[in-house]
Amino acid sequence: MLEFTEEQESFRSVVREFAESEIRPYAEEWDREHKFPTPTVQAMGELGLFGLMFSEEWGGADAGLITQCLAIEEIGRVDQSMGITLEAAVSLGARPIAEYGTDDQKTQWLPDLVSGQRLAAFGLTEPDGGSDAGATVTRAEQEKDDWVINGSKTFITNSGTDITSLITATAQTQEGISSIIIPSNTEGLIVEPPYRKMGWHASDTHGLIFQDCRVPKANILGKPGRGFAQFLSTLDDGRVAIAALAVGLIAACLEECVTYANERNAFGKPIGSYQAVAFKCADMATSLETARLATYHAAGLRDAGKPFKREAAIAKLHATEAAVSATRDATQIFGGYGFIDETPVARYYRDAKVLEIGEGTSEIQRIVISRELGLGELG
Questions:
Q1: Residue 67, domain extent
Q2: Could you tell me the pTM of the whole model?
Q3: Which entry of 73, 256, 356, 359 is annotated as an active-site residue?
């Protein structure tokens, strides 16, 4: 049985109240206008949502992944764009600095990231790479006391906002793939125009070009040649967090569908009285329960310091595929109204698909799970 502490339940209520009052009324407008709401993101920071995973030394709460997932679920329940903004800022932006940064790097960057007043991005994916994240073409050459970086990245979240402070990018070095901190004001860093995405319209996503970007040698993150390994070790946290985002989406679909099915009449009675609709809602409720259990089981293992790679992949795979199914069924229940952007389920449908792609596709999760079962590499 899944149970949260009294403190966690109280925290969930606070986040839900914030999401209902500060995000839900504006989510449709932000989606329509492709608007990144900086003041709202910083208000999330003032609520402490960006610091939950970090130590008190840097202004965090040291509350663990379960609590972080509760925040992501509740924000994602009203707006997936703000949910992924939070998730990426923590898992991909600040976490690598906290895990592998020097004391000087932590002192320079973490306080603003943990407070949510600034954002960081992680530049891994390349135009010709996709799921083959190790096929990094971007290069970093040492010239005296500097790194000179050339290459490009694609689909990088939080990389072009007006509060982005840095991008940590993977690049080929003499020692192998390394991670290098590139401040957002670095000469030669080109942030391409935002993508015209199917969903997540209010989140910030760009391609990046590095043209002779010169940063100090001290900007290496961790040991040279360990960049890809660093990314893989932090990826499990992100997969659980994406699962939490999917759980929030399933919950949103279920709530909208139950309300609509009780209010909408057809053939003289509410459509929820017909099995065709009622069973879709029942399946949605089942998916919500199992996805939530898988997600918080994985988060609990992580917080207990136990291995959770397989559980993270299972949670991500199950929750995201369940979310896609939930949005499809929700659109079907709403009928023609589900095809109109003024209804939330249309936005949910557009936002869902990328959950099966980002931070490891469903196919990658199946590979991870298969290998954890001892089945070896798949040919």
A1: 6-119
A2: 0.96
A3: 359
